[in-house]
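Appendix B. One record, verbatim.
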Amino acid sequence: METQGARTDRLGLLLDQFDRAREMAEVRLAGLGDEEFLWEPVPGCWSLRRRGEAVTPRAFGPGEWVLDQGAPDIPAGEYAEVARQAAGGMSVAKIAEDWSVTAARVEQVLAHTGPREPDVTPVTTIAWRLAHLHFHFAGGWEWTFGERRREPKLLVDFTPSAAAALERFWELIARWRESVGGVTEEQLDTVGFSQYPYGSDPDDPFIGVLWGANLEFIHHMAEIALLRDLFRGRFAASGQGAG
């Protein structure tokens, strides 16, 4: 089905959404420099750091540079997702495995009533957000269209170079888009078509996985765009040039 040249089938809508988000992101990331890439707007940021200099207990990466990652937990903003997992038939043990927490923590979340306290989460740099997206999509491709065996957190050799990071990232995104474009209607509805080991991909139909990947891409790119605005604004406020 088409309307004025636009696809309105299920895959077509998701592809169109992704393509438009990618176009906007490419424009917003043009000219990104290394200083801005690693800029920490507040104390206590998570970022890319040299191995041995990470400030978090689970920082990861295969090379010299690693990505900050803290202790596992279920943030308040994800309580509804945990409830949906339980309502969909996932056991407490499986949910705990997906979130890398104890079964007791899952039971605590499921038993929660009333308003939730706002999450207290670290501010992350542009480098962190782009690297997070990179390993997420690299792992998604590997465990859907690839060999389905390599550890997602070891697929991306992180770099402090903004230009190199962007070049590698857009190459990966092009490969992801090409592969997704060939998915059939039957595969869209196949539970476990993606076997990505972090999260609920193996328990979800692939159309839900695609929806989630688009959401991940859009919200992180929006955050990166805001950080770029703030970086530029701090120089404008002080009367200095950003070069």
